[in-house]
Amino acid sequence: MSSTIKHRPTLTDIAERVGVTKMTVSRYLRDSNSVAPATRKKIAAVIDDIGYVPSRAPDILSNRSSKAIGILIPSLSNQVFASLIQGVESITKPAGYQTLMTHYGYSPEEEEKKIISLLSYHVDGLILTESIHTKRALKMLASANIPVVETIDLPERPIDMAVGLDHRAAAYELISRMIQNGRRHIVYFAARLDRRTQLRCEGYRQAMTENGLAVHVLSTQEHSSFTQGRLLMTQALVQYPELDGVFCTNDDLAIGAMMLCQEVGVEIPMQVAIAGCNALDIGKAISPTLASIETPREAMGRAAATLLLARLSGEVIKDPIQDVGYSIFAGKSLG
Amino acid sequence: MSSTIKHRPTLTDIAERVGVTKMTVSRYLRDSNSVAPATRKKIAAVIDDIGYVPSRAPDILSNRSSKAIGILIPSLSNQVFASLIQGVESITKPAGYQTLMTHYGYSPEEEEKKIISLLSYHVDGLILTESIHTKRALKMLASANIPVVETIDLPERPIDMAVGLDHRAAAYELISRMIQNGRRHIVYFAARLDRRTQLRCEGYRQAMTENGLAVHVLSTQEHSSFTQGRLLMTQALVQYPELDGVFCTNDDLAIGAMMLCQEVGVEIPMQVAIAGCNALDIGKAISPTLASIETPREAMGRAAATLLLARLSGEVIKDPIQDVGYSIFAGKSLG
DNA sequence: TTGTAAGCGTTATCAA
DNA sequence: TTGATAACGCTTACAA
């Protein structure tokens, strides 16, 4: 025997079938022991038959607590954010929070829209992955009055809380190491210009300048990919014949660059040293292994979620800005 | 002058400040010309100051239309689903629909939970990427009475509508081609056993058997990665000394396998031919290029969304099950 | 041009 | 043990 209702079943539908009021059914759902055993049985049977899914809307309306947190990521096709979300959910799920995840294609305007969309669902908190936001987004966040964690970066002027690392310093350290290894003609490969690409560029620039070396940046407006890495490397080999080092804003570009080198017979690391950023799995599977900046993405996700939940449970946060640090994976591509 | 309200601002908050009722503000928001110019100005000023975000909850409650559709993907770390979502959103966004995206780690039980979660937000329709569902999930979907499109696969018994391709046939065709090219000892690399991995295995098995060749499957329970591809290849080289072909359930495994071969001096395609599935960018950036099955993921996303929206606008669907086909990318790794 | 009332699904509160 | 009522934020329908 199956439902004869055509609309989405409600508490009232169940109640009518059982012959009680929706209040009794509501009680049953919160605690089945709070109704008489006979009633309990009947309700259980009907619910089992009817395919009931409680609506979140009334809860949201009255409670003002949605038990949902929003996560905004710039891109779905970047591994970096997948691990961040793993980290977040490893904390939020056990705590009974749902995550609403959206992406905004690296555009602040689109981010604004997605923030508004998440706020319209009354998320209890937000995790952002960018430190640059539109004025309107900032205003909406302010009046929503919910905890916000910015992550990956360490924003100059955080909205609320932040968990990230110093991308400029990481790039500086890596480039300095390349220079100490004797590289003199290092080019930086950039893709779409988000803030992190820029910060890494600053680190690169500083290290080069401090050592009296020339700064060379090659960039593409396309989103980064293996193919783009090949193209930039092709360009670099033509444009800078003395090239002996390449630093890429991420591993995709770096792997593409390596592949091109292998194809045209440029030896890595003998002729050219290559380094990327984020230390993805592929860099450890390729030969030579790819030097890269290890960013603790899952840990960042966990830390961000932990901060958010702490605030939601009313705790006082003593450390709202957390630097999780980085390390250098000294792959063989560095020489 | 900024808000002195601590709770999330509502229409009533705005109305009070302006000195009208919330109904007037509501009208202003739907059509600013429907209120008197003087009122209009005042409302605009307050809204600008207050950071108002309309709540979706009342809409959901009364209208029964949320203007949101749900998308369920098995994994965030698989490129395949990113392009599917691109395709979906290229249709839903212009139509004014939001997408709520969640992932379920290839687990039907988790999928069930996520389906329920999306239903609790009253999504107007759902796009699924798996053809196997729990009984409870099926029941919930049935009583929710919303359009559902299953995609990527072509389910044996579709819930409602479907857009996909025949993964078995694709694998069969690719393996047949490898056999025609003279390969005799082809091994299949499988990772976590979702239905598509299984279907491809069937295609492989059929092609091998029809040609009187031995079937060899190597699999890992880990999720697929470049590193897993290396491990499986290492194992294959030891276990099958006559090995002259490898077919991988996806490109990540295939690339990992290729990398290992390059490292240990196994020549591709001379000694071993390698093929993958999904034709990701990296397969076109590597040398030799990786043979693979091209699956029109973005097109699937568009088709799925188009079907869904058509149903939501009451159209009669003449073609609820669509086979979008596939093609073989004959990369150099095939020989 | 603006206001009033009712209702969407659920739960807290109070009553029986 | 169960029921009645009101409330959450917004819009539709009707009234002024």
Q: How is the secondary structure organized here?
A:
2 copies of one chain form a homodimer.
Chain A: H1 11-18, H2 22-30, H3 37-50, H4 57-63, E1 68-73, H5 79-92, E2 98-103, H6 108-120, E3 125-128, H7 135-144, E4 148-152, E5 161-164, H8 167-180, E6 186-190, H9 195-210, E7 216-219, H10 226-239, E8 245-248, H11 251-264, E9 273-277, H12 281-285, E10 291-294, H13 297-312, E11 321-323, E12 327-329
Parallel strand pairs in A: 1-2, 1-3, 3-4, 4-5, 5-11, 6-7, 6-8, 8-9, 9-10
Antiparallel strand pairs in A: 10-12
Chain A binds a DNA duplex (16 and 16 nucleotides) through residues 10-12, 20-24, 26-27, 30, 34-36, 39, 54-55, 57-64.
Task: Walk me through the structure.
Chain A has 335 residues and is an alpha/beta fold. Helices cover 46% and strands 16% of the residues of chain A. Chain A has 13 helices and twelve strands. Chain A has helices at residues 11-18, 22-30, 37-50, 57-63, 79-92, 108-120, 135-144, 167-180, 195-210, 226-239, 251-264, 281-285, 297-312, and strands spanning 68-73, 98-103, 125-128, 148-152, 161-164, 186-190, 216-219, 245-248, 273-277, 291-294, 321-323, 327-329. In chain A, the strands form two sheets. Chain A has a six-stranded parallel sheet with strand order 2-1-3-4-5-11, sandwiched between helices. In chain A, helix 1 packs across helix 2 and helix 5 (79-92) packs parallel to helix 13 (297-312). Chain A is elongated, with a radius of gyration of 26 Å. Chain A starts with 10 loop residues before the first helix and ends in a 6-residue tail after the last strand. The model of chain A has no long low-confidence stretch (mean pLDDT 95). Chain A binds a DNA duplex (16 and 16 nucleotides) through residues 10-12, 20-24, 26-27, 30, 34-36, 39, 54-55, 57-64.
